[in-house]
Amino acid sequence: MEIRKATVHDVETMQQLIQHFADAGLMLPRSYRSLYEHLQCFYVAEDHGTVVGTGGLHVLWKDLAEIRSLAVHPSCHGQGVGRRLVQALIREAEQLGISQVLSLTYQTRFFDKLGFQVVQKETLPHKIWKDCIYCKKFQQCDEIAMVYYTQVGVHVVSESVARI
Ligand SMILES: CC(C)(COP(=O)(O)OP(=O)(O)OC[C@H]1O[C@@H](n2cnc3c(N)ncnc32)[C@H](O)[C@@H]1OP(=O)(O)O)[C@@H](O)C(=O)NCCC(=O)NCCS
Prior knowledge:
With about 160 residues, the protein is of the alpha+beta class. It is built from 4 helices and 7 strands, in the order E-H-H-E-E-E-H-E-H-E-E.
């Protein structure tokens, strides 16, 4: 299993993976256009030449980035693929000097295992909701906001997010 940066050759499989879970209401859909435009944000998990997982890191502000479109093929759940993708995204955030990594999610136990903490959505900066207008649940969002405080954040006082 290799975790690596995504290339244009991965986009079709990435889109199918994300769409599978978007159809189930677990994440926002991503168009091909959006994936190509944000390709540099994305990692994939490749197993024997097949892309089995993907996830992107979107920088929102100087101290905040968001994990988006994290998806692992159902046949590979529970094998550590999601963990390795999230760890790669956290490393990327740290290399960029970002102190907090956000996820808006229903998978609270998964993110809890990876060291994320629940935060109040009301404390998040307004700019993070920009893409939510594309979501069917825009008016009644029930996702949980969780934040990971990176090594960069050890000595930084949070500007964007207040812990519960
Ligand atoms: C959430 C998701 C990415 C997890 O990927 P995964 O590869 O199955 O997770 P991992 O095998 O790396 O799991 C890491 C740990 O979290 C636990 N875990 C994973 N999913 C879990 C769940 N739904 N509930 C409880 N624990 C879970 C695993 O048991 C493992 O625990 P361990 O360290 O004690 O063994 C995957 O289930 C998925 O693609 N879900 C659908 C799309 C989705 O909801 N994405 C998240 C959008 S924010």
